[in-house]
Amino acid sequence: MLLAIIYVPLALRGLDDFRQFYTGGYMVRTRHVAELYDYDTQQRFEDLLIPVGRPFMLPINHLAFEDLLFVPLSLLTYTVAYWVFMAFNGALLILCVGLLRHRLKIQPDQRKWLSALLLLAFFPIPRALEKGQDSIIMLTLLAAALWALDHGKEFLAGLLVGIGIFKFQIVIPIALLFLVWRRWRFFAGFSASTVAASLVSLWLVGLDGAREYAHMLLSMSVRLTSDADMFRYGTHPRDMINLRGLLSAIFHGNLPHGYVQFLIAACSVIVLLAAARQRPSLPLAIAAASLTSYHFIVHDASILIIVIAGALCSGLVWNGAVAALLLIAPLCAMIPDHGYLAAIPLLGLFLLMLGCAPERDEFSAGACQSAIAEGSPCR
């Protein structure tokens, strides 16, 4: 009801994230793609296409290949394009239910709707729907990758994760863990789709555009020091459901900016090293990547439903309890500068997952194939 009453009307007025995707698609279609990462040009086109009557800017900050998806939508009016994209994301959620169903162990035939309700009960997912964000695309790619791994298709799984390079801060840590775990076919698939996406993006924006993009990323991360910078790039570290958000909230005003950045990097390395010592597990890799991602706000957390669902169905009391808390905790993001509170149960669940790695290397032949070989039903 809050989403319907408050947020959707704001999004329809152009005061939410779909604004930047629609503008990016329009700039690609009208051959202004070389200026895609020029801040002033972005602002000019956003004000031209979606005027809101006051200063409001959301920078285009994803790899350019993703904007090709929004080129057809830019042929429609902004309002129509918004509803079409919401319908597209709704269809992806239905697909996610099917992809994740084999992982859920608590649904008798009369409760098949539980997995759908579990997704809708997780605030980041309806939030991503309302914002017109691409996080549900990322969730679908990871759910499909999990399905592929469970069926022994490691190259395909890596290929799917690599397509998610538009959120490289999430997929690169996942790929690094699979590289350390020596899952060569997964990493080969990831490399193939990542290189293809990067080359398409470079072809679209050129070398100058790539340099502007790198400058933007640095400005949004390690150089983000003032409230003015945060407003300019629409990025507030304490809204982030990760180590960056948690440590920024704890040490804001107590340590110099450079020290905080070093502490975030050091803790991120520790998390990745701890995960690397476990057996291969995509849910574990997703949890680790979510914690270490430099940019991970509430709609990005949609992917955590994969981790939460697995923990709720694990039969382990503490894992289930912390997962239930994590299911609710992202509501803290409705309070400005308090999204970081959800990082606490995420960190707790990650630590619990370290102690209950899979008993077998389920990605070497696929969980379903292994189950059949052992005479057990494949869920």
Tally of separate domains: 1
Give unreliable regions as ranges.
364-379
Report on the biggest sheet.
none
- The sequence of SSEs as H and E is HHHHHHHHHHHHHHHHHH
- In DSSP terms (H or I, runs of 4 or more residues), the helix count works out at 18
Beta percentage is under 5%
How confident is the prediction overall: mean pLDDT? 87
N-end to C-end Cα span: 35 Å
The geometry reads as globular
The gyration radius over C-alpha positions equals 20 Å
Fraction of residues in H or I helices:
55-70%
- The helix-and-strand class reads mainly alpha
Total number of β-strand segments?
0
Task: Give a nutshell description of this structure.
The chain is mostly helical and 379 residues long.
Write the layout of secondary structure elements.
Blueprint: H1 2-12, H2 18-29, H3 39-49, H4 78-100, H5 114-121, H6 124-131, H7 135-150, H8 154-163, H9 168-180, H10 184-220, H11 227-233, H12 243-251, H13 257-276, H14 282-292, H15 304-312, H16 317-328, H17 343-354, H18 367-373
How is this structure best described in words?
- The radius of gyration is 20 Å and the shape is globular.
- The chain has one domain.
- It is built from 18 helices and no strands.
- By secondary structure, the chain is an all-alpha fold.
- Helix 2 crosses helix 3.
